[in-house]
Design brief:
The complex is a heterodimer of chains A (411) and B (82). With 411 residues, chain A is of the alpha/beta class. Chain A is 38% helix and 16% strand. Chain A is globular and about 75 Å long. Chain B is of the alpha+beta class. The chains are: A alpha/beta (411), B alpha+beta (82).
Chain lengths: 411, 82
Amino acid sequence: MSEPFFSQLKCRECGALYPKKAIHVCEYDFGPLEADYDYGKIRAAISRGKIQSRPLTMWRYRELLPIDGEPTVGLKVGFTPLVKADRLAEALGVSELYVKNDAVNYPTLSFKDRVVAVALSRARELGFKIVACASTGNLANSVAANAAAAGLESYVLIPYDLERSKVLNSLVYGTRVIGIEGAYDQVNRLCSEIAGKHGWGFVNVNLRPYYAEGSKTMGFEIIEQLGWEIPAHTVIPMASGSLLTKINKAYREAVKVGLVSESKFGIYGAQAAGCNPIAAAQKAGTDLIRPVPKPDTIAKSLAIGTPADGYYAVNVMRNTGGAAEDATDSEIIDAIKLLAETEGIFTETAGGVTLACAQKLIVSGKIPRDERIVICITGNGLKTAEALDGHLPPPARIKPSLREFDALIAK
Amino acid sequence: MAKFKGRYWLNFSGPKATDPLIYLMSKKFDVIFNIRQATISGEMGLMGVEFEAEREELKAAIAWLEEHGVTVEPVEINTIEG
């Protein structure tokens, strides 16, 4: 790309401008830094036709992503199916429902491949040779896989007592996995110190402004796959709240650069009842987030007790006329089964949270039954299969006898 | 002993949320505080603050704040993701 569409970093609180470096916090007020673009230039440079002529990946929207040149990591990521979910719509009693299915994102079966593709492409532009993250699951898998494919050295930091099955999904890619003994905040502090001292590219620390922007591509794809329309209602899982704010940003940017006409849309957030700081704040009508010191839910990928973007997520929901909900563990399990049985999509626990909350929002009338709804499914059920232990009937068992088989299916 | 600078989000809630905890902390511990941002609503408050102190003194001050119901998070929160 010869045109510099991505111009600078900007503080979300005070608007102070910063150069496009590996920094993520405003020096004045500690506000998060966010990528800022020259929308006039982008508007003149892109069109629906130009986007549609490009390969079916998230990089179709590259003018709206924070890299200077061509992407170099995760070139096949994105453009996951938007499934018209008629059987699920019938079960929920709504007229038009879609599932955005990032459970089949490439290469590691979660939406994290989007953010990692942008973070690592930018890391290369900034000259990082080593990339890293601290994660208990999807993010670690994605950093390990995408770094391996790009020939970047990578480190994954994890709590030392993480289950072996989760560690395997990162180890297999040849990444260096380091278990850290300590509480959550101690690990946080160590990561920021490592990023500063060793000059590594930490995807969700010093590369965070770039990383977070990758989530927007989920929003752009939804718009394009709906025939260039913004859905009336979008239900999104919330951990830090970043994905929700970025899908909102994508919808607004698509209007700003002339890809869609303006229309009213509502953004809805979903959390687990066992870790619901953002949903609780939204329901209480405040934007101050009360931390959850000890999250207790099977939806571990959403269990962030002190969500960095919680304040912004509450404001997006408020400003768009949306709302938040939370779901118990048993509601999450039921929703995972419902999605699988009606649409053939096996989602991880976070997807169960999203569907369960969508159901509650529909039943309570906060989402009307006769308007277009999109549910964002962000990860694959094979990653959290243990959550279903004891919740599915065992397979029937018979002798190798036709009589026994006939007797069984006659029941 | 070299001084250490750290940036934190402090979350005040519960019965002591309206106490002058930062003032009391600075009387009790040798910590320089520099408030960068603050919001309060009802009985809950959020403050962005830079602390400068000798490491052990800062650790003790943070532990004291936590004993008084303040959640102390480094500004670089959520580095561990799912």
